[in-house]
């Protein structure tokens, strides 16, 4: 008797230790991931700028004022040699290798400044331009000794300015790590998610309602249920192949070619493909939520004369909503982190401008991370981690919303 | 109610999708080696005049890129294919079967396939013959038994052979095989010349083109940064990748001299280092009229590919001056590719 009790206590302790161990292990993995990402990524949110004194008038740079207010202003400034003028100013301000210290895109900063305030053309002024990747790497402690010496010299002269990298949050992809931004990919992700939600949510919820409340229970509905459960487990790459074949494929029917239904690389085709992928998840979650509404609610509503559709839309659906929304948001979070199907439908592209609408070419956050991780330049390492932090923040916000909605609308019986 | 509204909204969205092709952006697909140069030009193209539609560049590999390029003409097909090898006769015929019409072939410059090791490495000095004996699957027709570099050549140190390189789908690996392994085979194996001339190309292939898969050659996937990281962690290993990666990581890696010549801009440009290959753009002539800005894009490319231009700073090796002039002329006069030149 005593021995059996001791054994039961021992089993209890073993189980507790194992459970706590599992939690600690997963927390340690998560902590390690977060720690490495933050340690590598925080510099991605900072920028190094150089205070560049420039006197365009004395440099003999000349542009007709009248052209600055026209759409041809960019062309006028470029053909007047603004790029060379900026490089010359850098050489005279920072020394013989000055042109290698500023980013190749530095002249576009000055171009924007001139368009804002043409008076810059006439007087000496100081503009803050982004430093080159080599300079930024040297500041981070990895670079040639010559570059490190230059960095120290300019820091003593007070010409190096560090600050928060707004460019990273407002720009799109670039080949130069100091000029890249995440906004293009984030906007692409948001547009794709909007399309996914608009298609997957109504279709998924309506089919769940039909299957739970109206469909007769027979072999056909069993078959449908098994198929939906199967679809939820199908690898995402297969949905990518499906999207490629159906939405971007061409068919020849009776001698006429029917061409791709949707534009390649656009959030529209990405959203539709991801909607197909997460629809089974939404159907399953919604059916479980609808099943969880007590039959007494339906009976009472029917008893006071409500029609079946009134029962569903006035009583069952509102009560099932927290469960449905939680399932939907978890599905959406999966879609947000999805890469494989999007690679196939052309969303792994280099695009310098953010998309203006759902039919413009775009890329999404996880694909952007994938593209940056493959870049040659060393500066992209920290940008990749910074992009991962942005993705984690968006995921955290979505899951937080799921918890909030569940707590807000949850009813206990 | 909510569901019904959303359904209507999604239906309307699906309807507006049809006018997506009104003014189309430039579309480029293909090689991951050419990708960094084309993206740099695309960025300059948009920077030169704000408000221009940004070109869309996909990196899917030379073979897949040329396949998509050859699927047809029209708005849904790419305008330009990036390729790190020349188009084959088969691919050209496929293009013509799909009524693509004339194609312009433009060489943008050279790329070097480099062998490199960590700065803490053993400072190996190799020859093409050593590389062949160390990495071929069947050197001299027998399975490769070499485990250390000394097994290959008594003058080399007795450290294990470990080479990290790209997978068999990669153009870089094709170039490595063609430029280093096969010439090493012809040098090392007296029978190879006869095999090459014989009627059965499979035998030559098995002896001179196949890389061993029993451990010493490690396939690191398409991500060249993984090879760079692997070299930093394992000083005795060698890596195979495009020259631009070596240049970018000069502080951690150095090139392995082959036949006494180390990879550098100069030695690759004048052909002394064995790993130089041309990089190509293929452009559909019919699209030049239909896609706005396509010709400007090519001319901008020509402006930037010179020896002092920004593409060279990114690791491109500029083509000789006469070739650059020929290529610029091809863009101006839209001279199409002659299929008789292709293999």
Written description of the protein model:
The complex is a heterodimer of chains A (413) and B (343). Chain A has 413 residues and is mainly alpha-helical. Chain A folds into 2 domains: 48-164, no CATH class; 183-409, MetI-like (MetI-like fold, Orthogonal Bundle). Chain A is 63% helix and 7% strand. Chain A has 16 helices and 6 strands. Chain A has a 3-stranded antiparallel β-sheet with strand order 2-1-3. In chain A, a hairpin with a 2-residue loop joins strand 4 (251-253) and strand 5 (256-258). In chain A, helix 5 (133-139) crosses helix 6 (145-156) and helix 10 (236-247) crosses helix 11. The longest helix of chain A has 40 residues, at 2-41. The mean pLDDT of chain A is 88. Chain B has 343 residues and is an alpha/beta fold. Chain B has 2 domains: 24-111 and 278-341, 3-Layer(aba) Sandwich (D-Maltodextrin-Binding Protein, domain 2); 112-276, D-Maltodextrin-Binding Protein, domain 2 (3-Layer(aba) Sandwich). Chain B contains 16 helices and 9 strands. Chain B has helices at 2-16, 35-48, 62-69, 89-97, 128-135, 149-152, 171-188, 192-197, 201-209, 224-233, 243-248, 265-269, 285-290, 294-304, 310-313, 321-333; strands spanning 27-30, 56-59, 80-83, 103-118, 163-165, 217-219, 238-242, 253-255, 276-284. In chain B, strands 1, 2, 3, 4, 5, 6, 7, 8 and 9 form a 9-stranded mixed β-sheet that branches. In chain B, helix 2 (35-48) links the parallel strand 1 and strand 2. In chain B, helix 2 crosses helix 14, helix 5 packs across helix 7 (171-188) and helix 14 (294-304) packs antiparallel against helix 16. The longest helix of chain B is centred in the middle third of the chain and has 18 residues, at 171-188. The relative contact order of chain B is 0.18. The model of chain B is unreliable at 7-22 (pLDDT under 50). Classes of the chains: A mainly alpha (413), B alpha/beta (343). Chains A and B meet through helix 2, helix 8 and strand 6 of A and helix 1, helix 2, strand 2 and helix 11 of B. Strand 6 of chain A pairs antiparallel with strand 2 (56-59) of chain B.
């Amino acid at each position: 008797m005593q021995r059996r009790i001791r054994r039961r206590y021992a089993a209890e302790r073993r189980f507790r230790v194992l459970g706590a161990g599992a939690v600690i292990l997963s927390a340690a993995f998560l902590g390690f991931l977060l720690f490495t990402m933050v340690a590598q990524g925080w510099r991605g949110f900072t920028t190094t700028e150089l205070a560049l004194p420039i006197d365009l008038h004395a440099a003999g740079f000349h542009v007709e004022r009248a052209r600055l207010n026209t759409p041809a202003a960019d062309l006028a400034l470029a053909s007047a040699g603004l790029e060379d003028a900026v490089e010359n100013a850098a050489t005279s301000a920072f020394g013989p290798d000055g042109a290698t210290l500023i980013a190749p895109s530095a002249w576009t900063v000055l171009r924007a400044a001139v368009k804002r305030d043409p008076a810059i053309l006439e007087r000496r002024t100081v503009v803050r331009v982004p430093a080159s990747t080599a300079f930024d790497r040297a500041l981070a402690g990895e670079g040639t000794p010559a570059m490190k010496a230059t960095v120290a010299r300019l820091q003593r002269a007070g010409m190096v300015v560090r600050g928060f990298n707004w460019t990273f949050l407002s720009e799109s992809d670039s080949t130069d790590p100091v000029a890249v931004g995440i906004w293009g990919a984030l906007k692409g992700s948001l547009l794709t998610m909007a399309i996914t939600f608009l298609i997957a949510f109504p279709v998924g919820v309506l089919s769940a309602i039909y299957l739970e409340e109206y469909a007769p229970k027979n072999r056909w509905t069993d078959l449908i249920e098994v198929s939906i459960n199967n679809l939820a487990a199908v690898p995402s790459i297969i949905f990518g192949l499906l999207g490629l074949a159906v939405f971007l494929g061409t068919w020849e029917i009776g001698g006429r070619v029917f061409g791709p239904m949707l534009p390649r690389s656009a959030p529209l085709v990405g959203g539709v493909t991801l909607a197909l992928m997460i629809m089974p998840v939404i159907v399953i979650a919604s059916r479980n939520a609808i099943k969880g509404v007590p039959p007494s609610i339906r009976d009472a509503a029917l008893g006071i004369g409500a029609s079946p559709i009134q029962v569903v839309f006035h009583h069952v659906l509102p009560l099932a909503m927290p469960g449905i929304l939680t399932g939907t948001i978890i599905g959406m979070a999966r879609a947000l982190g999805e890469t494989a199907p999007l690679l196939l439908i052309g969303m792994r592209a280099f695009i310098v401008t953010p998309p203006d609408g759902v039919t413009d070419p775009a890329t999404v956050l996880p694909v952007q991370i994938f593209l940056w991780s493959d870049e040659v330049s060393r500066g992209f390492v920290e940008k990749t981690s910074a992009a991962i932090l942005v993705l984690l923040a968006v995921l955290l916000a979505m899951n937080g919303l799921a918890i909030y909605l569940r707590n807000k609308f949850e009813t206990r019986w | 109610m909510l569901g019904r509204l959303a359904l209507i909204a999604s239906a309307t969205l699906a309807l507006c999708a049809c006018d997506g092709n009104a003014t189309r952006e430039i579309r480029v697909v293909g090689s991951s080696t050419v990708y960094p140069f084309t993206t740099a030009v695309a960025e300059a193209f948009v920077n030169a005049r704000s408000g221009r539609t940004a070109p869309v560049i996909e990196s899917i590999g030379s073979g897949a890129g040329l396949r998509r390029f050859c699927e047809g003409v029209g708005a849904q097909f790419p305008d330009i294919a990036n390729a790190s090898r020349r188009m084959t006769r088969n691919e050209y015929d496929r293009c013509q079967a799909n009524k693509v019409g004339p194609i312009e072939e433009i060489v943008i410059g050279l790329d070097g396939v480099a062998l490199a090791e960590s700065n803490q490495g053993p400072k190996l000095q190799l020859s093409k013959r050593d590389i062949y004996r160390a990495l071929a699957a069947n050197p001299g027709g027998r399975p490769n038994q070499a485990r250390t570099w000394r097994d290959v050549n008594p003058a080399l140190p007795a450290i294990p052979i470990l080479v990290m390189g790209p997978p068999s789908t990669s153009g870089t690996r094709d170039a490595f095989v063609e430029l280093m392994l096969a010439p090493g085979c012809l040098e090392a194996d007296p029978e190879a010349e006869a095999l090459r001339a014989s009627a059965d190309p499979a035998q030559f292939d098995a002896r001179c083109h196949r890389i061993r898969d029993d451990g010493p050659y490690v396939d690191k996937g398409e991500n060249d940064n993984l090879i760079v990281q692997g070299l930093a962690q394992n000083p005795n290993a060698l890596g195979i990748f495009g020259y631009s990666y070596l240049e970018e990581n000069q502080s951690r890696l150095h090139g392995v001299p082959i036949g006494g010549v180390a990879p550098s801009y100069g030695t690759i440009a004048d052909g002394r280092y064995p790993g130089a290959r041309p990089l190509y753009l293929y452009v559909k002539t019919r699209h030049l009229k239909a896609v706005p800005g396509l010709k400007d894009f090519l001319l901008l490319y020509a402006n930037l590919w010179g020896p002092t231009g920004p593409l060279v700073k990114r690791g491109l090796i500029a083509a000789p001056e006469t070739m650059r002039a020929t290529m610029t002329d091809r863009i101006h006069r839209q001279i199409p590719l002659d299929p008789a030149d292709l293999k």
